[in-house]
Every structure is written in C-alpha cells, then in structure tokens.
Amino acid sequence: MTLLDLPTAGTARRSVTLLSGFLGSGKTTLLRAELDRAGGGAPAVVVNDFAATGVDDVLLGRDGVRPVTVTGGCACCTRREELADGLRRLLDDEQRTGRPRRDVVVETSGLSDPGPIAFTVASDPVLRHHYALGLVHVTVDAVTGLPDAGRHPVALRQVLAADHLVVTKADLAAPEDVDALVRRLHGLNPTAPVSVTAGGELLRTEPAPGGRRPVPAAVPIDAVPIDAAPIDAAPTDAMPTDAMPIDAAHTEDVATVELSTGAPLDWEAFAVWLSLLLHRHGPDVLRVKGVLDVDGAGPVAVHGVQHVVHRPEHLPGAADGSRLVLITRGIDPGRLEHSFRTFLGI
To answer: I want to staple 25 with a disulfide (CB 3.0 to 4.6 A). Which of 77, 134, 141, 330 is the partner?
Structure first.
C-alpha cells in the first residue's frame, strides 16, 4: 500500500488523499515518484496551482493523459468550486468511458490551507456520496525548513492539519538539521508520524510521539489508519455547505508571474538571469517552477524555492516552448516581466 493506494474505509466511495505543503517543498517530486511506483494502478490526480498557467500537468502526465488542473488561485478559497467541478468531471469520465472506479490524489497549491479543501469534499452534496476523505500528507523542505509563521502562517496551518508529515530533500541537508526539523515537527503536531525522504524515496519514518501508529517502513510512504483521517462524514442539517469560512487574505500580497517564449533558451544566459534575480529578491521569490526548451538539450524542468535552485531535470520528448512560473511576494510583476524580456533580447 502506498500513499496513492488508500482504502476507502470499507465503503464503495473513492478515497481522496490531500497532498499539501508550502511552495517548493517537493510535493510534485514525491507525487511523481508515487505515480511511477503505482504504475497502471495509479489514481486520478487533481493539481491545484496558484498560478493561472500550471506546469505540474506536464510533469505529472502519464501515457499522454494529464491530470485535472485547477489554476489561478487556491482551492481552499477562490477556487473551491473549480475543485469540486474537477472531482465531478472525474465521475462523469468514469461513467462515460466505463473505466473502473479510481481513487484520487489532490495536490494542493503551496499556499492552500488543507482544512477548507477537506471540508469541500466532505460537505458537497454530490461529492460526499462518491468520495471519502483519506489522509492529509504535508511535505516540509529539509533545506529551507519551516517558513516563518509570521510571514507565511498558512505553512503552519498545513503542518497542524497533517495526518502524515514528509520531510523532503534530506540528501541536501545536514543530518543534524534534518533531525532538528523532525523534532520541531513532532513538537508542533505530536499525532503525525514523520517520514524522511530524498528524491521521493523513503529513508526512514519517525513514529508519532502522541501515540498514533507509525507509517510502516517496509513500503514507501504508507498510510496511517484511515479512521484517523479528518472529516469523513456528511454535514448535519445545522451545518450549511458554506460553513467553512472562505478567506483569500492569505494571498493578498502574493503575485504570480508567468513567463513564456517559443524560442529555445540559452541555458548559461538564463542561469545568470535567474541567479541575479534570486540574489536580489531570494526570500520573496516563493517558488520558481518551469519547463524550458533549452537550446541543444530539449525540455528541462527547473525547480526553486527562495534562494535555493535544485538540479535541473532533463525530460523525455520534444519541447513545446518554455514556460516559467514565479510566485512572489511584494515584487512588481511588471518589472519581472520587463527583466525577462530584456534578457531574451540580449
């Protein structure tokens, strides 16, 4: 049993697993590894991206089929109805094509609060009859650690909502720093086991100090008992479906900059431009993610968070232009766009 192959509490409903975590914390890397492990038994995937143009649909596509995408905001607030529509479309596709029932993984935006998303699935008058809430898995970057709760309070809410915490990129951090992060996570959420991973592969699991059964170490990122999952019941008559408050204030000073070009990029020149950007604005560049058409190399995936840029990954197939999405805080999007276009001109 893997993260993506969860039971549905003995019912005929499809399990919905939430994969959350702050921007750049490794959700997509973990999910890609899990989809590869699942093979033909992989679940359906719904990807929520704060940017209007997503990149993860390219990275998570399998056999020419891309995941359902919910873009242009967080599924916890401004895009809740789009998330519900996406899950309904999966039901319609099953009926239309005659495919067997499939469980679902929802990869949330890095700025999303898992609570309202879970509430949407559990309270929607259609979804609650077809989907059962699974677990909330939350990724935490071993390199950058937990973001400052004063600047990014949603990161703390993600950790507190987790049934299972996953420390990612442990191979890029000092062992003592990883151990300190695990202890801090246990202090914040004593009921969640903490798995330590690198490149989507499980290294070890630390049991929950609060007594919850640990994730088994024999298989990658297994699930804790489904009965420990939050909100797996229809709302009562006294609970209207909009009872969970919708608050988009957590993203009011966050902007998305989407950069694209059809011409192949010079990798060395692009690296200089990105390095200068991160040197000047590192803490306020919350995420960098893109698929680039690199001259002479084809499609290359790039990932970065704040001042850290991870090793680029060559992707199979032919490139279809370059798409780079930056999520920033307090940076003028127009100046970033102008800077990129000037770089292309040079």
So the answer is: 141
